[in-house]
Design brief:
The complex is a heterodimer of chains A (about 110) and B (about 110).
Chain A (H helix, E strand, L loop, with lengths): L3 E2 L4 E5 L4 E7 L4 E9 L6 E7 L4 E4 L2 E6 L4 E6 L8 E9 L7 E3 L3 E6 L1
Parallel strand pairs in A: 2-11
Antiparallel strand pairs in A: 1-3, 3-8, 4-5, 4-9, 6-7, 7-8, 9-10, 9-11
Chain B lengths: L4 E3 L2 E4 L5 E6 L6 E7 L5 E8 L2 E4 L8 E5 L5 E5 L8 E8 L8 E2 L3 E5 L1
Parallel strand pairs in B: 2-11
Antiparallel strand pairs in B: 1-3, 3-8, 4-5, 4-9, 5-6, 7-8, 9-10, 9-11
């Protein structure tokens, strides 16, 4: 069973516009959420995170929103730039005995067109 | 080193042969993780080390897979009698510990079993 879901395999936006990447989760024990960005032939790099006690975290052009009741989070990139083109993975970390493990979604390929 | 280093970057092996994948974590990081990404899939958790011990091996797909970590540093993932379904990118990550939620990834080893 897939506990972290990214239902959009790909997203295409124009440079300067907003990119919104979505992620849903099923495990209510998740208490920390992260977004990773991955370029081809490179490992994922950490982008931004949010604790379950918050509903928003902002870092420059990147903002992550968390809706706990809907078990949904989203990553907003504004304005989008061509260099943002990459695969974005949503990840979640559990609490308690499995608090070390990150569970990843399948990723969304973002293409920002000049 | 400055980041997580994995070797080799690419490995092509014949079905039935054994392979060893190496990971050098960030110096001082006590937690080390192995993940793999098969084509079109998300990152699949394989194993977690805290120091030299592996409290969670639950993600290892079969008994052909094993991993060890020595000196609280370098880790080796061994796949015996490789099968074509083992073809994937194997990613290693390290973090400062359980309380540190951000894991830093290496560039991965692309394994192709022919």
């Amino acid at each position: 069973d897939q506990q972290v879901k990214q239902n959009s395999p790909s997203l295409s936006v124009q440079e300067g516009r907003i990119s919104i990447l979505n992620c849903d989760y099923t495990n209510s024990m998740f208490d920390y959420f992260l977004w990773y960005k991955k370029y081809p032939a490179e490992g994922p790099t950490f982008l931004i995170s949010i604790s379950s006690i918050k509903d928003k975290n902002e870092d420059g052009r990147f903002t992550v929103f968390l809706n706990k009741s809907a078990k949904h989070l989203s990553l907003h990139i504004v304005p989008s730039q061509p260099g943002d083109s990459a695969v974005y993975f949503c990840a979640a970390k559990g609490s308690g005995g499995s608090n070390y493990k990150l569970t990843f979604g399948k990723g969304t390929l973002l293409t920002v067109n000049p | 080193g400055a980041g997580v280093s994995q070797s080799p970057s690419n490995k092509v092996t014949e079905k039935g042969k054994d392979v060893e994948l190496r990971c050098d974590p960030i110096s001082g990081h006590t937690a080390l993780y192995w993940y793999r990404q098969s084509l079109g899939q998300g990152l699949e958790f394989l194993i977690y080390f805290q120091g030299n011990s592996a409290p969670d091996k639950s993600g290892l797909p079969s008994d052909r897979f094993s991993a060890e970590r020595t000196g609280g540093s370098v880790s080796t993932l061994t796949i015996q009698r490789t099968q074509q379904e083992d073809s994937a990118v194997y990613l290693c990550a390290s973090s400062g510990g359980v309380l540190y939620t951000e894991a830093f990834f290496g560039q991965g080893t692309r394994l192709t079993v022919v």
